[in-house]
């Protein structure tokens, strides 16, 4: 956060705890000092927001926008020119996102709703 109490320079593998401001390892899943989760993603989980993907797919899925968002440019263009597979592909993708089964370009599941 902006009000980190210590202004020392961070090392390459260090980060501030967003809760208490302590300098911690950026690989830590939780702050060892206050126990707050750091928000670092487990392996296989996309850094992309599920909420953004859902909204993009719900409103603009027929344009393939949600696929561009997660880096799937090829199938995004395909979905664009087929107008979301005449709507069917868009519906399927929307359901996949809701179920947490939608994946990004690297095959990581888009399961995190917000940052
Ligand atoms: Zn902390």
Describe this structure in words.
By secondary structure, the protein is mainly alpha-helical. It folds into two domains: 1-38, no CATH class; 41-115, no CATH class. The chain has five helices and two strands. The protein has helices at 50-60, 65-69, 73-81, 83-86, 88-99; strands at residues 14-16, 23-25. It has a two-stranded antiparallel ribbon with strand order 1-2. The two termini are 13 Å apart. The mean pLDDT is 88. Zinc ion binds next to loops.
What is the strand and helix layout of this fold?
Layout: E1 14-16, E2 23-25, H1 50-60, H2 65-69, H3 73-81, H4 83-86, H5 88-99
Antiparallel strand pairs: 1-2
Helix pairs in contact: 1-5
Zinc ion binds next to loops.
Note the main attributes of this structure:
single chain, about 120 residues, mainly alpha, two-stranded antiparallel sheet, about 35% helix, elongated, binds zinc ion
Overall pLDDT: 88
Query: Strand fraction band?
Result: 5-15%
The chain-level structural class is mainly alpha
Ligand roster:
zinc ion
The helix/strand order is EEHHHHH
- The largest beta-sheet arranges its strands as 1-2
Total number of domains? 2
Number of strands: 2
Largest sheet: 2 strands, antiparallel
Distance between the termini: 13 Å
Low-confidence stretches: none
**Helical content (DSSP H or I, runs of 4+):** 25-40%
Shape descriptor: elongated
Task: Count up the helices.
Answer: 5
Radius of gyration: 18 Å
């Amino acid at each position: 956060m902006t009000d980190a109490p210590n202004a020392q320079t961070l090392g390459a593998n260090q980060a501030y705890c967003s809760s208490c401001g302590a300098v911690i390892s950026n690989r830590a899943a939780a702050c060892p000092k206050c126990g707050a989760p750091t928000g670092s993603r487990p392996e296989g989980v996309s850094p992309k927001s599920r909420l953004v993907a859902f909204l993009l797919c719900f409103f603009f899925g027929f344009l393939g926008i949600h696929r561009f968002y997660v880096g799937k440019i090829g199938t995004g263009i395909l979905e664009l020119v087929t107008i979301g597979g005449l709507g069917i592909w868009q519906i399927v993708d929307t359901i996949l996102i809701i179920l947490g089964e939608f994946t990004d370009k690297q095959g990581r599941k888009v399961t995190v709703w917000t940052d």
